[in-house]
Amino acid sequence: MKVIAIIGSPRKNGNTEQLASHALKAIAEEGIETEIVTLAGKEIKPCTACMACKEKEECSIEDDLPPIYQKMKEADGIILASPVYFGSCTALLKALIERVGYLALHNGSPFKGKVGGPLVVARRAGQNFTVAQLDFWFHIAGMVMPGSTYWNMAFGRQKGEVIQDEEGLRTAWNFGKNIAWLLKKIHS
């Protein structure tokens, strides 16, 4: 089994990646393979609704999406992690979920029955909306989302500040443990 965390931040090794790494550590402790997939430095263009993906399981837009989509299809679990930018997920992550959403919708729903959920970091506010925004994608994709001990969010602005949010770290850790538990139940 394998769980990937897609980091929607344009910053490498920032708060979002640190929080996701914490959740992945909890998953890895349960004997499940994990991987960080960062969108930082990648070009993920927005969906143009051309519907070329209805004809074959490929997007007509040429950028860095195809290998990420393949990793998502191969994974048993997916975490989408984003900082809050102006009240919602980053444009990078939004472009990714729109495009892979259409690809999946028109090509056999490859995410159906997988396990996953969001992780969100913000300086002050916007986490609730961003968690809900990402939750909607998981629901449309037919995925199963375990809970935690609070909503999957943490606080931090400057790089490394998220590590000071003990409750946010505990929530991410418990979320990771619940992903691992659910994957083991599904695959037993």
Run of helices and strands:
EHEHEHEHEH
In which order are the strands of the major sheet placed? 2-1-3-4-5
Fraction of helical residues: 25-40%
Give the termini distance in whole angstroms. 11 Å
Q: Helix/strand-derived class?
A: alpha/beta
- The CATH class turns out to be Alpha Beta
Largest sheet: 5 strands, parallel
The helix count comes to: 5
- Give the tally of structural domains: 1
CATH architecture: 3-Layer(aba) Sandwich
What is the mean predicted local confidence, pLDDT? 97
CATH level-four homologous superfamily name: Flavodoxin domain
What name does CATH use for the topology?
A: Rossmann fold
What's the total number of strands? 5
Which residues sit in consecutive blocks of at least 5 with pLDDT less than 50? none
Task: Tell me the radius of gyration.
Answer: 15 Å
Binned strand content: 15-25%
- Envelope shape: globular
